[in-house]
Amino acid sequence: MRTSQSRRTAHALAASTAALTLLAACAGAGGGGSSGDGDSINVLMVNNPQMAQLQELTEEHFTEETGITVNFSVLPENEVRERISQDFANQSGQYDVATISNYETPIYSRNGWLHSLDEYVEADADYDVEDILEPINLSLTGEDGQLYAQPFYGESSFLMYRTDLFEEHGLTMPERPTWQEVADLAAQVEEAEPDVAGICLRGLPGWGEVIAPLTTVVNTFGGTWFDADWQARLTDPEFVEATEFYVNLVREHGESGAAQAGYAECLNNMVQGNAAMWYDATAGAGSLEAEDSPVAGSIGYVPAPVEQTDSSGWLYTWAWGIQRASENAEAAWEFISWASSSEYEELVGETLGWENVPAGKRASTYEDPRYQEAAAAFYEVTRDAIAEADPINPGVQERPAPGVQFVTIPEFADLGTRVSQEISAAIAGRQSVAEALENAQGMAEDVAEEYQDR
C-alpha cells in the first residue's frame, strides 16, 4: 500500500476532444449478471473522445456482465464542471459518479462531498491500485491520506508538430525547445505555408481552457499567481512578459478565431492539417495517431517548451469520484473499477486500437509491447512528462498552494474563469494585455486577502 512518505506528499498536494457533438443523457441497458443485477447508476462526464468511446462500450462489455445499467449525462468541459460542482456541493445525489480532476478532488474530499475509495481498492485485488502511477494517485489523495478518486486517464502537456512540414521546409525541432524557439519556428512555417497556422493555442475562456496552457508559460517565465505570502503577482514583470508572449504568439501565428478555440478546436485544426504545431494535453496524441486521422504518422512530440525551468508540463487527470450522498456506492465502484482497469484498456486496444487506450495512469500500460508499438511516436514523451511534473514547485519560487496549471484552492475555479475572460478579450484584440492583467490583479488580490488573514 502507499508508503508514509507518499502519505506525507499526498498531504502536501491536498493542502492544495476531436470536437464532439453535445450529447444529452444516454443510457446503457442491462442484462442479467452478478450481485449488481438490477442496479442503476447515473454518471456525469465530460464530452471528450475517450469518454465517448467508454459510452459506446459500456452496455455490451459492462452492463451485460454486471447487470448494472449506466445512465450517462455528457457535457462540454465548462458546463460539466458547473453541473458537478452544484450537484456535489448540494449533495443532492442526482449523480452517483462524476468525472472530477486532481483540482477538485482534494477540495471536495475536504468538504466531505466524496466517498473514500480506500476500502474498495483494498478489497478489489483485480483492480491493482499499486499499478496506478504515483504522481496521479497522490494528486487524487485527500489531506487524510485516503484516496477519493481513481483516474480514467492521466496527462501532462507537450508540443506536437508536423514533421512532414518541418522536413519539407528544412526546419528542425529541438529535442527540448524553448518558447522563443517555438515562436521563431511558427513564423518560419507561416512564411513557407501561408495557409497553415504556425501554432494552435487555446484562447477560449475557462480556467480549464486558456488558463491551463497560459499558466505553464507563466511558470517557466518565472511568474506565479501568488507568492508564498499570498501576495497576488499578476502584474509582476514575469507574469506580464509570459502573458504578452502567449497572446502575441497566438495573435500573430495562431489559428483563426483563437479567442473561441479550446482543446477540441485545436485538436480539430491539427487533425485537419490547419496548424503546424500545437501545445496542449498529451491525451491529444491518441486522436492524432488514430487510424482514420489524416495526419497519423506525420506528427512529432517533444516536451513542453521552457524558459527558466527544466520542465513545464502540467499534471492532470480526469478521474472518477463517487458522491458521498450516493445510495449506489457499491455499484458505482464496480463501474469505476471496470472503467479504470487494465481490462478496460485491453478492451479499447483490441476493439478501437491501442493508440486510443486511455493511458497516463497505469505503469503496466507503458510496459505493454502492443501499446508501445501503437503509441511509439508519443508514449515515452508522455510518460516522462507525467513523471517530471511537479505540482509543489512548478516554477522558480515557493508557492502557497500546490498546482501546475491551477492553484488548488476553491476560489481558483471562479478566479481563473474571470481572469480567462480578460485574457481571451486581449487575444480578440478588445483590450491590451496590460489592461487585462490590471483587471485580473484586482480579482486575485480579493482572493488573496482571505488567505492572508488566516
Descriptive account of the structure:
It is a single chain. It is built from 19 helices and nine strands. The protein has helices at 4-14, 49-66, 77-90, 104-110, 118-123, 134-139, 163-168, 179-192, 211-221, 237-253, 263-271, 285-288, 329-339, 342-352, 363-367, 369-374, 379-388, 412-427, 433-452; strands at 26-27, 40-46, 69-75, 97-101, 150-155, 157-162, 277-281, 299-303, 316-322. The strands form two sheets. Strands 1-3-2-4-9-5 form a six-stranded mixed sheet. Strands 7-6-8 form a three-stranded antiparallel sheet. α2 (49-66) links the parallel β2 and β3 (69-75). The longest helix is centred in the C-terminal third of the chain and has 20 residues, at 433-452. It is globular and about 60 Å long. The two termini are 34 Å apart.
Instruction: Using the CA coordinates, give the radius of gyration.
Output: 21 Å
Q: Termini separation (Å)?
A: 34 Å
Can you write the helix and strand succession as a string?
A: HEEHEHEHHHEEHHHHHEHEEHHHHHHH
Largest sheet: 6 strands, mixed
| Largest sheet, spatial ordering of strands | 1-3-2-4-9-5
DSSP strand content: 5-15%
What is the helix fraction of residues, given as a range? 40-55%
The number of E-state strands comes to: 9
Mean pLDDT: 91
Instruction: Supply the helix-strand structural class.
Output: alpha+beta
**Shape label:** globular
Number of helices: 19
Low-confidence stretches: 1-37
